[in-house]
Amino acid sequence: MSVPANTVQTDDVSASNREDIVEAIYNIDPWETPFLSMAQRVKATATNHEWVTDTLSAAATNIQIEGDDATAIATTTPAKLNNYTQISDKVVSVSRTQRSIDSVGRADELAYQISKEGKSLKLDMEYALVREQASSAGGAATARASAGLECWLATNRTLSTGDTTGTTPGHSGTTVASPTDGTQAALTKANLDTTIQNIWTAGGNPTEIMCGPFNRGAISGFTGISQLQTPASPDAAVTMIGAIDFYKSNFGTLRIQPSRVMRDRTVLILDMDYLAVAFIDDMVMHDLAKTGDSDKYQMVSEFCLEVRNEAACGKVQDVTTS
Question: Is position 167 within any domain?
Fold first, then answer.
């Protein structure tokens, strides 16, 4: 069947046809920050943020003679720990023209960029908090750095099977060094159970397991003590259960938190009562001086990780990621 002569088609007038474009912008990039969301928030009043930790005497036989003189015991002295506050920022600059024209999915380009980059700044903060970044006091031309959680966890550190080279120096003097990576091996239930037990023995009560995507799947693949079953009937949908949300150990039930930001080669076991983020400034926004035909805004946060007692947490180090 042929088109009648002189019929105007869309291709003939494409230059004058209006665009059909959805008034939305779809962005699937992740911006969850599980550690930052779970951690307590406290105030820092100096760039060298400090706190004090102490220990109890070990339990021992304690039998005294009636009427005996009191004798003072040797006691431990509190230890001072510290971390340095880190400055992280995002600066957006949008021209006057772009703010004035009609844009798809946003009424104001500057407001849109501030919203987007604010989420990106939180991701950068999460990255610093949970990874292997060492601390640094900084200097006139060097930025300060807050030591990340991987660097602190030295007491309850379980190496992957066969790893003899991985290390975690922990806090030393006034700085915290990065861990040394070792030979990787698959995460095992025994690794996880050993770490949880060691934390409990040290006095912690962990409630969270944080891990990357591969080892989130590895934990779901552990051989369990019991099987999960879903009753089925001819009229009901059948659900296949392929993951676990909580890990019930001999020393408590822990929630499994997947992280897109932390290193997948490390599994963190956390008692959140002993972890906090200390802020000199939470996220604040500054209207920067105009230097031309544009508007500039800076979003900035100054913060550090506060590990009140690293023995309350632990990690399984150098596990495989694929």
Answer: yes
